[in-house]
Amino acid sequence: MSQTGVTMLAGVQFHAVGKIYHFDATHLPTLKKGDLVVVETTRGRQIGRVMTLTPPTEQTDLASLRPIERIATGRDLALRRYWRNKEAPALTLGREIASRLRLPLKVIGAEYSLDGTRLMFLYTAEDKVDTQEWKRELTNSFRARVELRLVGPRDVARCLGGYGACGELQCCSTFLTDFSSISIKMAKEQGISLNPQEITGMCGRLRCCLAYEYDQYAQARKNLPKVGKPVGTPHGRGTVVEVLPLQDAVIVQIGEQRFRVARTNLLPMEEHEPLPRRATPPREEAGKKRPARERPPRPEAETPAAEPTPRRRRRRHKHPAA
């Protein structure tokens, strides 16, 4: 046994689709996955199913761990069935009281604890509602400690269930245990129409499935040019008008035609320019003359020195006297 006294953690799930909570299972060496156990929670004593059995890690908050009371017996299962049969009448009465008080809320469900000492009502409301009078009348109507819990639209959709736009059961009621943050950027990155009817789920919020392939689309777009960028292609120079991330290609507008060009066939603009044009030197600035080209001096030929030419004397002519 470790210094903390905990050698085995049991991950317990209380609903078919719900979070897994960890408990100390050191005193139950025969415990195995799939067993039903009785544990004490903040909502009272409940029955859950063991989903995992792992040793504690350094990140485990051992101070908050509670021990598993026992493995569920036949009597425990019969007791749970008894109180579950009373949840539907309790829900009906809770809705009638809320309607009589004209409270702007919607009662979603009612849950009894294993021993019936606690009764929790789940409700949703768009604005803040004063529930003191409603809780007072519920307490007078039931022999249990009444608790009220406000839930969000996604939790409401999980409780009600149903089918999504894809024709399958909703993700929140089949396998999603946590709701991740969804943004409109995820729809834009995947090229999905921003029509509210196409990106909104039954809960009135953005669909959870928008996050499933977002990382793949974002990674694929990093290697492709953006819309509006000029590119060179084997068909000529054009402009990107559409990006196809999953096909690793783009649609390029060249004149009046459009071509689908794979990323490997895209050419940078400097490579797309004709070779003679790139080889031509830039023109000289206007008004600027090129420097004169210096020519190497010619070698002097070795010739015999010429004799000096005798200077001819100028003869004077005498003019006749007048």
Fold blueprint:
Layout: E1 9-13, E2 20-24, E3 36-41, E4 44-54, E5 70-71, H1 74-85, H2 87-100, E6 106-112, E7 118-124, H3 132-141, E8 145-150, H4 153-160, H5 184-189, H6 196-199, H7 214-221, E9 230-233, E10 236-244, E11 249-254, E12 257-262, H8 269-272, H9 275-279
Parallel strand pairs: 7-8
Antiparallel strand pairs: 1-2, 1-4, 3-4, 3-5, 6-7, 9-10, 10-11, 11-12
Q: Can you walk through the features of this model?
A:
The protein is of the alpha+beta class and 322 residues long. It folds into four domains: 9-72, no CATH class; 82-151, GMP Synthetase, Chain A, domain 3; 156-217, no CATH class; 230-272. Helices cover 22% and strands 23% of the residues. The protein has nine helices and twelve strands. The protein has helices at residues 74-85, 87-100, 132-141, 153-160, 184-189, 196-199, 214-221, 269-272, 275-279; strands at residues 9-13, 20-24, 36-41, 44-54, 70-71, 106-112, 118-124, 145-150, 230-233, 236-244, 249-254, 257-262. The strands form three sheets. Strands 2-1-4-3-5 form a five-stranded antiparallel β-sheet. Strands 9-10-11-12 form a four-stranded antiparallel β-sheet. The chain has a three-stranded mixed β-sheet with strand order 6-7-8, sandwiched between helices. β6 (106-112) and β7 form a beta hairpin. The chain starts with 8 loop residues before the first strand and ends in a 43-residue tail after the last helix. The model has no long low-confidence stretch (mean pLDDT 83).
